[in-house]
Design goal:
By secondary structure, the protein is mainly α. Helices cover about 65% and strands about 5% of the residues. Helix 1 (about 10-25) packs across helix 3 and helix 2 (about 35-50) runs antiparallel to helix 3 (about 55-65). The longest helix is centred in the first third of the chain and has 18 residues, at about 10-25.
């Protein structure tokens, strides 16, 4: 019997980071990203995929730990590169 591969939390984090990088790269690259933007993008992506239960809360926390906080002036395009590197490169 063939069982489908299981999706781990690390896989979810990586996929969400890539989705965030794609969103950032698709928009105007020159726009400045704020910490509030980063947090809301992560929350939106996690809840779109997993709802709002405890697993989603844990996943949100895991993604926030992998995506560096924005405490300097950075554009969407620059942060997309940073997030993609944090996710492990191209998907």
């Amino acid at each position: 019997m063939n069982t489908p591969p299981t999706v781990t939390a690390a896989d979810d984090v990586r996929e969400i980071l890539h989705a965030l990088a794609d969103q950032l790269a698709a928009g105007p690259h020159y726009r400045i990203l704020t910490e509030a933007d980063r947090l809301s993008m992560i929350l939106n992506e996690v809840t779109d995929r997993h709802g709002s239960g405890l697993p989603a809360l844990n996943l949100d926390r895991a993604v926030r730990l992998q995506a560096p906080a924005v405490d300097w002036e950075i554009t969407h395009g620059e942060y997309a590169l940073i997030v993609r590197r944090a996710a492990g490169g191209a998907l």
